[in-house]
Amino acid sequence: MDDEQGSGQGGALAEALAGWVGARIDAAHANPATGLVALAVYAGARRVLGAGIGPRVAGAGVLPRGPRLRAGASHPLVAAMRAHLVGRSVLAIEVRRDGIAVVAGEPLPGEKGGEDEIEADAARGPGVRSGLAPGPRPELAPGARPELAPGARLELAPGRRGEARLLDAAGDLILRWPPQGSDPPAEIAYPADPFAAGAALVEASDAAAAAQEKAALARAVKARRAALVRRAEAVRGDLGRLGSVARLQKTGQLLLAQGARVPRGAARALLDDWETGGTIEVALDPARPAKVQAEAFFAKARRYQRGEAVMRARLAETERALEAVAALAADVAAAEARPEALEPLAQRARSLGVSRAELAGVGAAGGAGEPGASASRGARGARAGRAAPRLPFHAYRSASGAAILVGRGAEDNDALTTKHARPHDLWLHAKGVAGSHVVVPLPKGASCPADVLVDAATLAAHFSDARGEVVCEVSYVQRRYVRKPRGAAPGAVTYDREKVIAVRIEAERLSRLLATKEEG
């Protein structure tokens, strides 16, 4: 940064920060989606320096509070600031025409770090503390207290295209945000009143972040509504096939009666329709006698009839969910963009099966040191505006709340089994027929509870060619015993140490499971 001290309006900010030298740094926060970076110190009272580095907020000032909406400890900028600044003392604060620099050093002997030090130490791993590693003490910066040694330097260049840079005691770059670099202004326009500017800055950041969260919630609810519409259409299509039951039964009866005169190996047969006086053309399997194939038509008709109750129950459940999601969409549209208003709506969305990935951070609980506040945890701000990655499975919940993952297609089955499932997880598949891979995530060394096993087996049967059967055999093994042969077709696997459960499909159980679907 430029060595020339800021004057005029910059002098007001420098004067406001002058008494912070020697204070302990208690917390470091950021909302990368809006661009607000905040550093809290304790100097007789809690004080917060804020800098807006863009894209949505710009400027600098003394904040009346920390940002309510911010990234979690896993975000790179937050993690770096907590690792190198929190728990140390302020050696110097420089307000320059090209930005603000905060120099931090080791804590006073015997003095403990601030409220975020425990989080910072946990993020760094066992055996690593907030102090600097042993070594020669570097030369003190001008104006530094002699009993403290410089540890790190945070440089903030406020502006719509500003940046934050964290450097170590040797001046080497630790982290730059945004990571792709920027073009910060050569000279900063500092406010005449840093306290009023700080209040406006934090309010603007929280408002912009809340507006983003409201938009994300609206998108997630819209996607859930579209998924429910597709599900309802698919179930109506399944119900539409019930009209073919009479035709299937009639074809089976005609084939049983007239199959003797169908040539062996024929791929098609022309049967006399005694009711209409016409003919019916039927496709056949050339490898099987025609009369034997009559049973296949009867079996298919029975499957459709047995599945009718489940399909109608699922359609009713889907239509109820659609009504609830439509009401939720209206409430989201009318809601104020405030964390306390969005949190109950996000909870409703999760209860209606909205993807947890899409809702990550919306209305989450507040961070340490901000009682009653809400915060965007998990670095959600960094990924604001991006579509959540597509998962190769849908998640369902057993009656006990255990997750059950069901592959979405042949290639998705491979991804679920080989990339997402762990060796000790339970893997299931309907025995002897094509179907989805099903995985029950389990703690290492744990066995699958009996009720969860039956629920998972029910889903494995439902999402297979055995759908509609009263009883289905389902294979299950630990994932470690499932292998994907080289060159095998998508979804094709081999496995050993197989166990088999014969599950009776209960309409009530199946409807309960299908209602818990979480879109992947």
Keywords:
5-stranded antiparallel beta sheet; 19 strands; 35% helix; 11 helices; alpha+beta; 520 residues; 6-stranded antiparallel beta sheet
Concise overview:
Helix content is 35%, strand content 21%. It is an alpha+beta fold and 520 residues long.
Descriptive account of the structure:
This protein is α+β, with helices and mostly antiparallel strands. Helix content is 35%, strand content 21%. It is built from 11 helices and 19 strands. A hairpin with a 5-residue loop joins β12 (393-397) and β13. The longest helix has 47 residues, at 194-240.
The total of beta strands comes to 19
Structural class: alpha+beta
What radius of gyration results from the CA coordinates?
32 Å
**Poorly predicted runs of 5 or more residues:** 2-8, 108-148, 363-387
Put simply, the count of helices is 11
Largest sheet composition: 6 strands, antiparallel
Strand content: 15-25%
| Helix share bin | 25-40%
Global outline: elongated
What is the ordering of alpha helices and beta strands? HEEEEHEEHEEEHHEEHHHEEHEEHEEEEH
Note the gap between the termini.
Answer: 47 Å
What would the average pLDDT be, to the nearest integer? 81
Which strands sit side by side, in order, in the main sheet?
12-13-15-14-16-19
